[in-house]
Design brief:
With about 170 residues, the protein is an all-alpha fold. It is built from 3 helices and no strands.
Length: about 170
Amino acid sequence: MTDTRKGVSEAANEAKDAGQQAIDSAAGSAQEAAIVGLDGARRMTEQFTRVLGLSGRESEAVARQASENLGALTETGTILARGFQDVSREWLTLSQHGLQKNIDGLTQLARCRSLQDLVAVQSELMRNNWHYMIDVSRQLAEHSIEIANEAAQTISSETKPAANRARKAA
């Protein structure tokens, strides 16, 4: 039983490491895509101002406004990617902990010597698993809400000054 527990624990650690690498790779790709998108949007804004024939000052204001808005979106995207990474890491850790608890539960079930013991241990394990599942869901939801609030606050604080400047210019 100890060899099985070791094997499962090692497999869980390998899965956690592989998951972490995938998460890091996805976050890096998202950040690179945001940078490429920002550069493309900047070029598109320049072309747009040329087509509309805006003057130098107007063109600069439009470009600055677009750049600030895209910067806010990029920063928010970075926050969301980091948050996704944090939640995924937390989920993997909690999953590993849950797997260990299930292995311990199987050990308890294997030690049962009567049907009454088996029913008592099984019902206790089911209750504990439900409780654990609810706690994990709550923790992940709370963390997700914190991330969403941080992203919303960032985009609001970044875009409000730009919107005020645009109103004053108009």
